[in-house]
Amino acid sequence: MQWDGWLPGRCSACLRCRSCCGSERDLRRKHDAVTRRRRTRLPGLKKKKKKKKKKKKKKKKKKKKKKKEEKKKKKKKKKEEMKMKKKRTGEVLCDEEVKQAETRERRDGSGRSLSVLVAVAPEDFPMSASERWMGFLVW
């Protein structure tokens, strides 16, 4: 029996391992991983059945956490706005607005009543940034 070098450990005539067909018993080898892999590719031998892959279950998206996070963000924004309202002691008004302004009682965030100058028609007096800085805080 002849043996081709391309298939180590096998007889080229019967495609069996040398220990089974009896040729060249001195070159007998154990079935290593390479020969085991090649055995499935040979046309005359039985092919091993492939194991079916298990399908992964899709995880459901957790919407509750997102809603909670959004609520927390909204609460933080409201708290920051309230802090800013408390910090603001007056409104910046330019000279023309002060002339047409009227004093009104306004409740502060803490419940104190404040008398604040409020412009009657702020749309009539568009202010630029420089005019805003030229204005002053009025109580």
TrEMBL record:
Segments carrying the region annotation (Disordered) are 25-93
Starting at the broadest rank, the lineage of the source organism is: Eukaryota, Metazoa, Chordata, Craniata, Vertebrata
- Ranges of biased composition (kind: Basic and acidic residues): 25-35
**Annotated protein name in UniProt:** Uncharacterized protein
> From which domain of life does this come?
Eukaryota
Q: Which portions of the chain have biased composition (kind: Basic residues)? A: 36-88
